[in-house]
Amino acid sequence: MSDPVARPVFFEGQILGALDLQDSVEYSRGRDARHSRYLHTWGIATGLELSEKGKQLEISGTTFDYKEISVSPGMAIDGRGREIIVPESRRLSESDFDQLNVAVQDKEALYPVLLIGRDRSAPASNFSMGDCATPEPTRQVEDFEITFRGPGEDLDLLDQTPPDISDGPGNGTGNAWLVLLGYVKWDNNIKKFTGFDVVSGGIGRRYAGVLADEVAARGGSLQLRTRTKSESGKPAIVLDETDGGELRFGLLNAAGIVTPVLTVKANGDIITPGTVQSKSSSGTVYVQSGLATDGVVLPLPTGVKPEDVAPDKGTLHVQVSMRLEGLVPPANPAGADWAPVPIECSVDADRRVRCQVRWVQIAAAPTFVDLPGVCDYVLLVGIPATGG
Amino acid sequence: MTDKMTLIVVKKTGHVLGVVTRESDPEGKLEPADVAGEKLLVRFVGSPGPLFEVARFLVPADELALEVKDFDPMIVPRARDFVLNADKQAVATSGTAAVPDPPPSIMQVTVNASAAVTVKTPVWIQISSSTDPTDTQVRQGEIDVNESGVDIDVLPLNSGSLYYVLALVGGHDQLVQDITAP
Questions:
Q1: What is the C-alpha to C-alpha distance for residues A89 and A32, in angstroms, rounded to an integer?
Q2: For residue A35, is it left (φ>0), alpha (ψ between -120 and 50) or beta?
Q3: Burial state string for B109-130 with b = 16 or more CB within 10 A and e = fewer than 16
Q4: Which residues in A67-97 are b (16+ Cβ under 10 Å) and which e?
Q5: What is the mean pLDDT of residues A47-52?
Q6: Which of A26, A121, B58, B93 is placed for a possible disulfide with A137 were both Cys, Cβ 3.0 to 4.6 Å?
Q7: B8 - beta bridge partners?
Q8: Is A293 within 8 Å of B79 when comparing Cβ atoms?
Q9: Which value, to the nearest 10 degrees, does the dihedral of the CA atoms of residues A214, A216, A222, A228 take?
Q10: Buried b vs exposed e over A263-290: b needs ≥16 C-beta within 10 Å?
Q11: Per-residue pLDDT for A375 more than 60?
């Protein structure tokens, strides 16, 4: 069960011990962690990008290519609400990886790279109380650790257990919270990294977010976009007070302004230069027409799905007629005269065209050749209105 | 009338098996199953006779691909005389393939091109029982350079039974042939 949160208070003449001062620090840490935990979602806040530098290694006269992989400076918030700061670029350690014994023979396997927040005691102070007292550290370094897992051992990263409601961020011991930075490839023969990726099997870097039921602008315009900075060509949504209220979706231009491809106005007008596609609506007739050859299933009009013409749903009307224009008689024997005779032109219950022409050679001893025919078709689908 | 047509082709060899056009949304996305169902009906082309007039093939939709091309009135009425070349252009087929009857064994069917080929040539066949339309199999192979034929392994045929073979050899005319399993 979670303990109540206690705030240190002091009174005149109180003798302050180290614990009193420590409680003051812990109270602030706990409050910040709870804010991060319950008003934000955990993940990378900035930076922490993987990068690689090509290198070569010579073993017994053979040259091998490998990569030095580094993590850029940045910050993440873990699921305990703890800030994890990587203050400067850090190269991933091959020896750390090797000691974990997670490597497999597959050189294309992707190994998760994970960031963990760890407290570390700073060196002890030179100052001590009296000759008998042992010098103690006066700072805790909020450090970090980078570790690795075996291929596929990243499925539980979204199911890590959060702390109790009133807990602070902790000191990084025990069940540490893992933040995924990306994936590396490893060559177990030369004990080196050979590349990296940021996604594996649909799982990738997770960025910190916001938990909010209400987001409000102060200047009359609210923008939602896919990048931290306004980048030309990236999508964005703007809600502002143009013409009494307008929602616009489109791509940002170089000036950071959305070029709208969809605008919803306050009076209900929806404006788009593109095509609006929707599930078939009731009380509508859809039409398709064209040509089809023998054996083809007639395509349904755009927006109509096969289930829309199932029994007790929409009504299908089909008209086909054999196309005699442009018929080409059999090539053999060359120069022979032929007469076409339609022998079949219909559509079955599966909308499949059955259309054949029998060619009759005009000769004393006529021969016959059956060829696929071509039909003109018109297909109407009526979707009945519902609810009167 | 639309100026586009959708060709239904065999992925392996590019042979055209059908054509469809759509006045509305002529270049809109279609999947092979939209115009073939689960299987495309391909019927015999040639002189009607007691055996061949019932020869028909149901080509699985996953063996097919669709290509949208500019409408060509020369292709539509005789679509099965065309094949997509390496540049995805529809060109007339030429050359007569052959499926020797009887095949070398109940486990193999031989498919021959009209002559030794100068490039590796894809071969696609569908074999259907004359009596059981559900007894059908699709097989693929390739004729190597300087060879004129290939033996394709098949699931065991019933000895003495009659089968219909739809044989497609890259660039060649489509062939429907009946064979009797040895």
A1: 26
A2: alpha
A3: bbbbbeeebeeebbbbbbbbbb
A4: bebebeebebbbbbbbbbebeeebebebeeb
A5: 95
A6: A121
A7: B18, B66
A8: yes
A9: -70
A10: bbeeeeeeeeeeeeeeebeeeeebebbb
A11: yes
The DSSP bridge pattern shows strands B149-153 and B162-169 to be: unpaired
**A387, two tokens:** 């609810």
Contact B96, B174 (CB under 8 A): no
| Contact call for A294 and B43, based on CB within 8 A | yes
**Residue A150: Cβ within 10 Å count:** 14
Question: Shortest CB distance from A288 goes to which of B5, B22, B47?
Answer: B22
Instruction: Please list the residues that pair with A292 across neighbouring strands.
Output: A375, B20
- By the 8 A CB rule, do A138 and A122 touch? yes
Residues 6+ apart with CB under 8 A from A69: A50, A51, A52, A91, A92, A113, A184, A193, A196
- Cα A351 to chain centroid distance, Å, stands at 38
Separation CA A36–CA A81 (nearest Å): 5
Nearest to B48 among A287, A293, A368 (CB): A368
CA separation for the pair B22, B32 (Å, rounded): 15
Ramachandran angles phi, psi of A133, nearest 5°: -75, 140
Q: What is the 3-state secondary structure (H, E, C) of A111-149?
A: EEEEEEEEEEECCECCCCCCCCCCCCECCEEEEEEEEEC
Contact A347, A318 (CB under 8 A): yes
Cα separations in angstroms, A77 against A33, A71, A74: 9, 16, 11
Maximum alpha-carbon separation in chain A:
131
CB B150 within 8 A of CB B109: no
Q: Mean pLDDT over residues B27-43, rounded?
A: 91
Q: What is the distance between the alpha carbons of residues A36 and A174, in angstroms, rounded to a whole number?
A: 20
- Summarised one tens digit per residue, pLDDT across range A265-300 is 998 999 998 877 766 666 788 999 999 999 999 999
pTM over 0.80: no
Q: Rounded to 5 degrees, what are φ and ψ at A122?
A: -70, 165
Q: Tens digit of pLDDT for each residue in B100-142?
A: 999 999 999 999 999 999 999 999 999 999 888 788 999 999 9
Name every chain A residue with its beta carbon within 8 A of the beta carbon of B22.
Answer: 288-290, 299
Strand bridging mode A246-252 / A192-197? unpaired
A242's tokens: 């143009």
| ipTM of the complex model | 0.93
B117: CB partners within 8 A, 6+ apart: B143, B144, B145, B146, B147, B148
Residue listed under structure tokens 């098996």: B17
A371 touches chain B (CB under 8 A): yes
- Angstrom distances, CA of residue A335 to CA of A164, A303, A363, B47, B77: 92, 48, 12, 18, 19
